């Protein structure tokens, strides 16, 4: 009956899919929306924060400062160590390209991993066209990066290491503290992409010995189009800018600041800091409930480390099922195949390939990700839909083989 109901609902547009793609982006929290609207009204907040000669500019500047205070409190840094960007992608580019170019007299060797986000991998690839050497460290079959493998890749020319905190496809969490200590001992800059982990894992840039940290807001129920780069003021005087003109943010990232987006990011970080202790266990319980509901189906494989992973992400592959058919059969669920970036261009997941998964399992992989507005009812619907789809498609596959 459920399968027929879902078919009718899809045909006549009677129901929207259950959203389980929080790792791609998230719904805007109403509290964040209200904060942003205050900065877009005629009375206050809409001014240019660089216009220091009148009250409208000073109000906007104060809104930006409050947002910086919220970010700094969450990651334990000083306000002047933050640079606003358009998101984590720009922050990754600015950190890697900007730091490498500014320190090119110190060395021209970069170390990263094969499972990084494309924003990191393509920044490193561009540096390779400029004469830099790039080493790519392989993960193990659970998606973990061994800090000893990072250390083994060090050379006298190594100037920067970039390792993500938590993988955007599998959710696997890396030993950032150990890698940070290795880099600090050798005076090598350490960059971390924390787009997925901010608000889900505690981040103390001092304790973890991180020199550059990329974060954004839209993975945490904040606005799209805004992010930040943390730069350790004691170890980095500046990075080479990617943009020019205006002189804002010490010339590192010029351009008029989008006050409403920055204020929204600040409110996002305040909410994360206040709610993380209660919210993370709730989200993890939903993820575990989802896994317990599908793990006993035949041919189901969990991708990535079952222990060291984010509370929110569950990545699975299904044996004996064609990936496109599986995604079509799950039209009532908004889930991802691989990362959001790869889903858009149809490329198979390079992350899962690095784990040693077969072509068939890579093609039939799905990433479920839950978050702030996910409910137990959402999970139950996802479990039932997945069971129905997988059972039906595996039955068809076995009949084809028998015929």
CATH-defined superfamily of the largest domain: Type I PLP-dependent aspartate aminotransferase-like (Major domain)
What is the helix/strand order? HEHHEHEHEHEHEEEHEEHEHHHEH
Largest beta sheet, briefly?
Answer: 7 strands, mixed
Strand proportion: 5-15%
What is the CATH architecture assignment of the largest domain?
3-Layer(aba) Sandwich
Q: Number of helical segments?
A: 13
Tell me, briefly, the overall form. Answer: globular
| Spatial strand order of the main sheet | 2-8-7-6-5-3-4
Number of strands: 12
Question: Can you tell me about this structure?
Answer:
By secondary structure, the chain is an alpha/beta fold. The protein folds into two domains: 2-28 and 276-402, Aspartate Aminotransferase, domain 1, CATH 3.90.1150.10; 30-271, Type I PLP-dependent aspartate aminotransferase-like (Major domain) (Aspartate Aminotransferase, domain 2), CATH 3.40.640.10. It has helices at 2-12, 30-38, 55-75, 88-102, 118-129, 147-153, 176-185, 259-294, 323-329, 340-345, 350-354, 359-363, 376-402, and strands at 18-19, 82-85, 109-113, 133-137, 158-162, 189-193, 212-216, 227-231, 300-302, 313-318, 333-334, 365-369. The strands form three sheets. The protein has a seven-stranded mixed β-sheet with strand order 2-8-7-6-5-3-4, with helices on both faces. A three-stranded antiparallel β-sheet has the order 9-10-12. The longest helix is centred in the C-terminal third of the chain and has 36 residues, at 259-294. It starts with a helix and ends with a helix. The mean pLDDT is 92.
């Amino acid at each position: 009956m459920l399968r027929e109901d879902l078919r009718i609902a899809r045909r006549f547009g009677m129901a929207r899919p259950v959203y389980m793609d929080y790792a791609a982006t998230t719904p805007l929290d109403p509290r964040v929306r209200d904060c942003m609207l205050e900065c877009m009204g005629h009375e206050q907040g809409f001014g240019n924060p660089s216009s220091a000669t009148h009250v409208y500019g000073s109000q906007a500047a104060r809104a930006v400062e409050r947002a910086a205070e919220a970010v700094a409190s969450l990651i334990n840094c000083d306000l002047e160590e933050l640079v606003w960007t358009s998101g984590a992608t720009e922050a990754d580019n600015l950190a890697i390209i900007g730091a490498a170019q500014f320190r090119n007299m110190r060395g021209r060797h970069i170390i990263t991993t094969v499972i990084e986000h494309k924003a990191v991998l393509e920044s490193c690839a561009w540096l390779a066209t400029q004469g830099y050497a790039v080493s790519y460290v392989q993960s193990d079959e659970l998606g973990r990066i061994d800090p000893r493998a990072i250390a083994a890749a060090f050379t006298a020319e190594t100037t920067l290491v970039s390792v993500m905190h938590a993988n955007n496809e599998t959710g696997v969490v890396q030993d950032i503290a150990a890698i940070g200590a290795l880099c600090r001992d050798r005076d090598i800059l350490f960059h971390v992409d924390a787009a997925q982990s901010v608000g889900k894992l505690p981040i103390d840039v001092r304790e973890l010995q991180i020199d550059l940290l990329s974060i954004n807001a839209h993975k945490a129920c904040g606005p799209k189009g805004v992010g930040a780069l943390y730069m350790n003021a004691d170890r980095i005087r500046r990075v080479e800018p990617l943009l020019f003109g205006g002189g804002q943010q010490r010339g590192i990232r010029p351009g008029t600041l989008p006050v409403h987006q920055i204020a929204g990011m600040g409110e996002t970080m305040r909410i994360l800091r206040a709610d993380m202790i209660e919210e993370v266990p709730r989200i993890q319980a939903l993820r575990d409930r989802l896994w317990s509901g599908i793990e006993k189906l035949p041919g189901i494989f969990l991708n990535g480390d079952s222990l060291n992973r984010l509370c929110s992400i569950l990545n699975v592959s299904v044996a004996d099922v064609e990936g496109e058919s599986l995604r079509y059969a799950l039209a009532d669920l908004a889930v991802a195949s691989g990362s959001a970036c790869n889903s858009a261009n149809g490329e198979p997941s390079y992350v899962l390939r690095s784990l040693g998964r077969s072509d068939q399992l890579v093609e039939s992989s799905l990433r479920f990700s839950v978050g702030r507005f996910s409910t137990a009812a959402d999970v139950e619907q996802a479990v039932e839909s997945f069971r129905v789809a997988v059972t039906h498609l595996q039955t068809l596959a076995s009949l084809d083989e028998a015929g």
